[in-house]
Amino acid sequence: MKQTIYIYHTNDVHSHFENWPKIAAFLQKQRNEHAQKGETMLLFDIGDFIDRFHPITEATRGKANVQLLNELRYDAVTFGNNEGITLDHDELSTLYQAARFPVLVANLFEKNGERPSWLKPYTIIPVSDTFRLGVIGVTVHFAKFYELLGWTIISPFDILPSLVTEVRKQADFVVLLSHLGITDDETIARTIPGIDLILGGHTHHVLPYGQWVNSTLLCGAGKYGQYVGVVEITGTTPKAALIETAALPDCEQTKQTLQALEQESLRQLDQERVAELSADLPLQWFAPSPFAELLASALREWCDGDIGMVNAGVLLAPLSKGTVTRKDLHRICPHPINPCKVYLRGDELKEVILQAHTEKMKHLSVRGFGFRGKVMGEMVYDGVTLQTETTEDGSEHIRRIFIGDKEIDPSETYAVATIDMFTFGHFYPEIHRAPNKIYYMPEFLRDVLAWKLTQRQ
């Protein structure tokens, strides 16, 4: 094949639309230029295009995001964990109803083992009479979470070897859209022959010129639309580059579309009344406050725990007396974080409480794991009493811990109602490695808050 194919790719935009007008202008310009030269241009997204931290995505459950992809004429997408496990079963099943592109996820199935009608494992794109491109999609294997939402997900390593063989028989060049992360992409390139190009996401890796592993070129374009990836394929040899979007001009029409979508989304969320507060709910990040204590209590009730435990930093602002709407709760608690119950022995729980009480942990700046705030903040409890003393240097130390009216028993097991963020990261090793965890899905913290505030009326 003498013709050069140009593949453009995005990943992990996470509803950070600040760069989207620039991306739109750039891709529209490139499409026009390639068309004038008679060249082939293809466009793929590698997942986590949606993120419910943004009011547009929250109000439309991601359908407006799909509209944006349609407008730029994407040729295929796969999806990530933000599409897959922050929407309930029905919301994900209907997310792509209006999509004008195939959605490629080879490793997701209904609970009965059947492939959803709206998903394809791969697509074959006939570039010319003599050259066909095979495109496969896979997403990260979060088995427990998909199971709770009514799906079955299998390891991509179980399905890819035979699938690549099947696609290879139909295509001259094989592309994998992989929302698995760089480590899995490298493993796939080393162990599964027949894939020419892996366009990656999930771990937000930036590969300015790609990375060769054996005979497979790996690509990654960071996060939040900071880059657009481009791969030139001449013959069967790909060459990768990244385009930084910061200095690119905006598409004014896209800016207007986003402004209109945001205004309508905020109006819609503001119309959904949750509760009427008879008094303010104050909040402090580094001291006890009523709002954080309310959330700890709500978690304990929701998860039926012995105690409730949550960091004050998940609440971004207090609530004022008067009407509380879904807009308010989304503004002050935008995180895609779910309630969780973890079973810890008393000695393990004590270690968590002591670590959470340190100034280092309170002021820890957190990124990822669903957290969309700034700092961890003070740990707030329901069902826990801390007996402290202040030393000569002014620091406060925990001397005794009470669960209910009894001092904590090192050998007793306690059901700790908290947030799933603590089970993903290594903030608290005792929670991270705890073998017995129960996740509550698809409700987010703001849904638990809405439930609790409704009860208070």
The CATH first-level class of the largest domain comes to Alpha Beta
- Total beta-strand segments: 23
What best-fitting shape do the alpha-carbon axes yield? globular
- Taking pLDDT < 50 over at least 5 consecutive residues as the criterion, the unreliable ranges are none
Helical segment tally? 16
Largest β-sheet summary: 6 strands, mixed
Instruction: Determine the N-to-C terminus distance.
Output: 70 Å
Describe this structure in words.
Helix content is 32%, strand content 27%. With 457 residues, the chain is α/β, with parallel strands linked by helices. It has two domains: 4-264, 4-Layer Sandwich (Purple Acid Phosphatase, chain A, domain 2); 273-455, 5'-nucleotidase,  domain 2 (Alpha-Beta Complex), CATH 3.90.780.10. The strands form six sheets. It has a six-stranded mixed beta sheet. Strand 8 (173-179), helix 8 and strand 9 form a beta-alpha-beta unit. The longest helix has 19 residues, at 252-270. It is globular. 46% of the residues are buried.
Summarize the structure.
This protein is an alpha/beta fold and 457 residues long. It has 16 helices and 23 strands.
Features:
single chain; 23 strands; globular; 16 helices; 5'-nucleotidase,  domain 2; 2 domains; 6-stranded mixed beta sheet; Purple Acid Phosphatase, chain A, domain 2; alpha/beta; 32% helix; 457 residues
